[in-house]
Amino acid sequence: MDIFDVLTLIGGLSLFLFGMNIMGEALERRAGGSLRTLLSKLTTKKLMGLFTGLAVTAVIQSSSATTVMVVGFVNSGLMTLKQAINVIMGANIGTTVTAWILSLAGIESGNIFVKLLKPTSFTPILAALGIIFYMTSSSKKKDTGTILLGFATLMFGMDTMSDAVAGLAEVEGFRNMFILFKNPILGVLVGAVLTAIIQSSSASVGILQALAATGHVSYSAAIPIIMGQNIGTCITAILSSFGTNKNAKRAALVHLFFNIIGTITLLIVFTIIKEILNPVILDEAASLFGIAVAHSAFNIICTIILYPMSGFLERLVNKLVPNSETKETMPEIDDRLLLTPSVALEYCHKLAVEMANTSAAALKKSLEAFDNYTDEIAADIRKIEGKTDHYEDVLGTYLVKLSGRPVSEQESVEIAKLLKVIGDFERISDHSVNLIESLEELREKNIEFSDSAQADLNTIFAAVIEILDSSLESFINNNLDAAAKVEPLEEIIDNLKEKMRMRHITRLQKGNCTIEAGFIWSDLLTNLERTSDHCSNIAGCIFDVAHNNMNIHESLREVRNNSPEYREMYEAYKKKYALGQI
Prior knowledge:
This protein is mainly alpha-helical. The protein has 25 helices and no strands.
């Protein structure tokens, strides 16, 4: 083996890792919606968690990436530690899929149909199809093309590595090295270190399969290396847990202990079998298929052994990372979720819903305070408004980051929608503070509205609460029927504002009100009317997304001018929120 073979090996390894990476990313984008649904339906049932981890890892081709995602989910509160343990176990099985795909490269037969199963036989066709899809299509078909190109690159890299190391078969030092690796402990260490360096057990198993193509890697050397690879893959999750909360650190430790306990247990069994029974197969040259079988068997047996012990693992990491008293923390989003944009978007939507509910609660509290004011209620409203500001900062920053990731066209629209509505929800909470400030001014100056003015105020309060509830329902559940109720009610509130201003002037002329009260009255009406405007923006955005039209003003004009349902609802609301006699 000369320097050119070494360079070829490095080039093949680079192509192999690159192909695996872009194929995994494209698979995740292609499965985005399904992956998001899968995770959103995750329950505390152990078996469901196990299959979730298996399925996700089989899609993205990396248990390290899955575990890093899990650490991010736990850190963000998207997943409990109990759920995470089962997902991590499933991820260890899912990561064996890559080895099975690569094992097809080792098929040898004169039968034409068997030859067709070899990836090298159909890789050029897949590459050709991939480049056609990639260059001539958009959205999902382009992702499909990237998947095919990634797979072709991966297999070409694997084939290049195998050719580069073929010369090692004649090198005595290489043969002696793998004789040395027959020491199980040394084999485990080598596998762990190699995997820790490249941070992917799937890739390190692929490298082992390429070396096995020389015919000088025995099963007695390969099996301990495979065991070590499962420990080395934990380094990614451990590194990703730095700076996270306690539960996220525990999730990373579960991954580590799962693999360490499984490796120690099966290494003892392997050593006993080797020393006492010394089966002939251990001295035979490992095939690509045999390594895939050993990799799957090891991970499946580990899971079978430790599956009933998930409770023990949870107690163990809880003792190692004990709880401590912590103050209430503001919502944050873990950057690790960016590894899976579809799931990150789902979590952003979850936080946006929390923000929406928080904002609506602040507005309703401020209206209720007009009948039952306390300093505690006012302080609580200001606290909620500060929390809503934080929601907007966190979500806005994160959504901008997410928009720069590879996302589908539908997900890109969802990101734009969230960026629009969070600003409206933040402004609604601002108006809740403005309303409470007006109320405090009334109390400080000992001003009371007349019975007629208070009745008018109660009418517009009720209309604002209804429009707020409808816009909230339209956003949270993507309810177009609720969204349709918003615009006619917004027009009613606009009219109420103008009528109530004129009625104030009438009361002023009759001596039933004061100019000083009128200034506060005007501020109240302005804040209520602007709240309804933001509700209209939210509902309009829901309509825009549903009709693939992000021009909200055009949508609202269309609704007002060409909808008989709109006029019908408008007339109904006009009767419902009619003002009484002055």
